[in-house]
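hey so i finally got around to running the thing on that chain from the lab meeting. sorry it took forever, my laptop kept dying and i had to restart like 3 times. anyway pasting the input first so we r on the same page abt which one it is
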Amino acid sequence: MTTRPTESELLAPAVVLEFSDDLRYEDVGPLRRFLEARLAEMIAAQEEGSDGHFAAVRLRDITVSDSVHLADMLSEWGRVIVAGRHDQPGHIQTLRQNLPHWWNRLVANAQHFADHPEYLPRWRNLRYLCVEHAEFIEAANEGMSRSGYDGVDAHP
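ok and heres what got predicted. didnt touch it at all, straight out
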């Protein structure tokens, strides 16, 4: 007899983030706190009123906004997972496809601080939604150059 996973099991963060379908609400907090701390250091290092100070403050504000937005999306995604509706078309797929975009925006900022001792290797770009998506994309790209058209076979 197969038992269905509990809600807490379904919503537990993955040990290793490999696909964006594995993202959970709890993944955002540590990344947000890390970025806020690093950006606070950047802000403190800039002379108030300078362009550098302005840019660091704006990056912090945008990062916080992106973090809140992603957390809200992952809260909704959690309800989708618990209900078993992750393959439902329409709004659910739009939500599903937007999660890696917002995660990867935050990760791009965190990667600037990859040498910091508090940086976690799990903060990396997530290219695929799930294993099936990865297999589909890799099969579709088989034999094709990812660098665009080149050589004598390129269109005029």
